[in-house]
Design a protein that fits this description.
Blueprint: E1 2-7, H1 13-27, E2 31-36, H2 42-47, E3 50-56, H3 64-71, E4 80-87, H4 94-104, E5 108-116, H5 136-154, H6 175-182, H7 185-191, E6 196-197, H8 207-211, E7 217-219, E8 223-225, H9 234-238, E9 244-245, H10 251-259, H11 261-267
Parallel strand pairs: 1-2, 1-3, 3-4, 4-5
Antiparallel strand pairs: 6-9, 7-8
Length: about 280
C-alpha cells in the first residue's frame, strides 16, 4: 500500500507525530512518504492509497493554509484517509475541520488523532504551555493509532478505526467550538498585534519571506507584511535575528479572556491529571 502523510508544521511538533506514524507504516512494509505542506502538491494526495493530513491547531481550529490546500484538491472519490493534529490549547474543531474538507472531496476518513504540543505562541499568557510535549506517551499513542488505522484499512473494515477520537467526525459543541466561529483571520487581525520588523536587527536574509505560510511578507528592503496575516507569529518566534516584535498590552488580554487556564480546564478537553504548565 502507498501511504502519504502531508503535514503542516512550524515548530516541529506535528512533523514529529507524523514521523512516529510513518515508522509504524514502514515496519508493516508499506511504502510511506512524508511531505511538508510547503512542498506538497495535489498529486501527492491523489496518487496514494491512504492519505494522512496533519496540522497544528490555531485558535481551536485548522489553520488557513491547510484548509486552503484541502479546498483546492481534486476529487478524492472513495480514497481512504485519516487526520491528526497537535494542540497547545483547546483543540476545538481542528480534527473535524480536516475531516469535513476531505469528505467534501469524496474521501472516506477512517480516524483522527490528537496530541499535545508545546505552545510557541508569543502572547505572554500562552508562551510555554504543555512543556516537553509531545513526549514519549504521545508518540506511543500515535504509533498505536497508526497501527489501528493500517489494520482497519488493510482488513477493509468500514467506519472508524479503533483509537480514533469521536470529535474527528462530530464537533463536541462546546465553548471552544463557539470560539472558532468568531476567530476568523480578519477578526484576529483586529484583535491581535501585527508583528513589526526592526530594521536595526534585520539582515535581509529572507527567512521570514520563505517561512510565512501565507506568503504575506516581502522585502522593501526590509520585511513588509501584506493584508493576509493570520497572526501565527511564525516570523516573530522563528526569525534567526529576532528582528520582529509585537505590542501585547491589549492582545494578551484578548487572548486571556478566551484561553485562560480556568476555561481550558473546564472546556478545553484536558485529560485527568494533565498539566498545562
Amino acid at each position: 500500500m502507498d501511504i502519504t502523510l502531508i503535514y503542516f508544521s512550524q515548530t516541529g511538533n506535528t512533523r514529529r507525530i507524523a514521523e512516529a506514524m510513518a515508522e509504524v507504516f514502514r515496519r508493516a512494509k508499506h511504502a510511506t512518504r512524508l511531505v511538508s505542506l510547503k512542498k506538497a502538491s495535489p498529486q501527492d494526495a491523489v496518487a496514494c492509497d491512504l492519505l494522512g493530513i496533519g496540522t497544528p491547531c490555531f485558535s481551536s481550529q485548522a489553520p488557513t493554509p491547510i484548509k486552503a490546500f484541502l479546498q483546492n484538491l481534486p476529487a478524492l472519490q472513495s480514497k481512504r484517509a485519516f487526520v491528526f493534529a497537535t494542540s497547545g490549547g483547546a483543540p476545538g474543531r481542528v480534527l473535524f475541520d480536516l475531516t469535513r474538507l476531505l469528505q467534501n472531496k469524496g474521501a472516506e476518513v477512517v480516524g483522527g488523532f490528537l496530541a499535545r504540543g508545546k505552545l510557541h505562541h508569543p502572547a505572554p499568557c500562552l508562551w510555554g504551555r504543555f512543556p516537553d510535549r509531545p513526549g514519549a506517551d504521545d508518540f506511543s499513542q500515535a504509533r498505536r493509532f497508526a497501527t489501528a488505522v493500517i489494520e482497519h484499512v488493510s482488513a477493509g473494515h468500514p467506519g472508524a478505526a479503533a483509537e480514533s477520537r469521536p470529535d474527528t467526525f462530530k464537533p463536541r459543541g462546546g465553548f471552544y467550538d463557539f470560539v472558532t466561529f468568531i476567530s476568523t483571520d480578519g477578526f484576529l487581525r483586529l484583535m491581535l498585534p501585527e508583528p513589526k520588523p526592526d530594521p536595526l536587527r534585520c539582515n535581509q536574509c529572507q527567512w521570514c519571506v520563505y517561512e510565512c505560510p501565507m506568503h504575506n511578507i516581502t522585502l522593501h528592503p526590509y520585511p513588509s507584511l501584506g493584508d493576509h496575516c493570520i497572526r501565527c507569529y511564525r516570523c516573530l518566534v522563528g526569525c534567526p535575528q529576532k528582528a520582529f516584535d509585537a505590542d501585547w498590552r491589549l492582545g494578551n488580554l484578548a487572548i486571556l479572556s478566551f484561553y485562560n487556564t480556568t476555561f481550558e480546564r473546564w472546556f478545553g478537553d484536558l485529560k485527568p491529571g494533565e498539566r498545562i504548565y
